[in-house]
Design a protein that fits this description.
Keywords: DNA-binding. By secondary structure, this protein is an all-alpha fold. The chain has helices at 3-21, 28-35, 39-45, 49-76, 83-88, 91-95, 104-117, 121-145, 151-170, 172-183, 189-204, 209-216. It is built from twelve helices and no strands.
Length: 217
């Protein structure tokens, strides 16, 4: 078995286990057992569990982020921008993650969600360190589309947005089955994502005054 094959087997096993169980509850021994490799192979290719976690995410981020950035750069050249346009720019890059794995979009969002749930501070530092410019462009695009949002507003609304998307993608199969059984809708993953975008745009674009008043009470 080549070194590349071994490395990919570790990544393939780790990403599924991380998505299903979380980072904290997935041991290296569990990963090596699933990948059928020894612990020395993980240490050789990645050095530590933290670095393995980062490598798992970066298989998706290295494809997703440049694609998204190109779309955001194009959007920012417009005189006016809507939140719907901003969120729609995520769809194409997200769907291209099937190149990593057939259910790559869902796994990617689950992994991002796990990063928040498991409080993986090193993962946030890794993402901001490698893709900080793209994250900044996301913030600028949303702020241009809704200038009333303060940094605090933006933090909360993007947090709620991520939670909504992670739940939707993690429940994709069940939601599609329900939609077909109850409403006769046959949705692929892209159609499911496009269904949630107007909801996200409306939430991030909701009037902020009532929220600030309630926080002040």
């Amino acid at each position: 078995m080549s070194k590349i094959d071994t490395k990919n087997r570790i990544l393939d096993a780790a990403e599924v286990l991380f998505a299903e169980r979380g980072f904290a509850d997935t041991s290296l021994r569990l990963i090596t057992g699933e990948a059928d490799v020894n612990l020395a192979s993980v240490n050789y290719h990645f050095g530590s569990k933290k670095e393995l976690i980062q490598a798992v995410l970066d298989r998706y981020l290295s494809l997703f982020m440049p694609e998204l950035d190109a779309k955001l750069v194009s959007l920012m050249e417009q005189d006016e921008l809507t939140l719907l346009q901003v969120f729609e720019s995520f769809v194409g890059p997200l769907m291209k993650l099937v190149a990593v794995r057939h259910n790559g979009p869902a796994i990617f969002m689950q992994l991002l969600g796990r990063g928040y749930i498991d409080s993986q501070g090193h993962l946030r530092r890794f993402i901001t360190g490698h893709y900080g410019a793209v994250l900044q462009r996301i913030t600028l695009a949303i702020s241009k589309a809704n200038p009333e949002l303060t940094p605090a507003d933006l933090f909360w609304r993007l947090h709620f947005t991520l939670g909504t998307v992670v739940f939707t993608m993690a429940s994709a199969d069940a939601l599609r089955d329900i939609a077909q059984a109850d409403f006769g809708q046959r949705l692929d993953v892209e159609a499911l994502v496009r269904n949630v975008i107007p909801y996200l745009a409306a939430g991030v674009g909701a009037p902020v005054e009532s929220t600030r008043l309630s926080l002040a009470v």
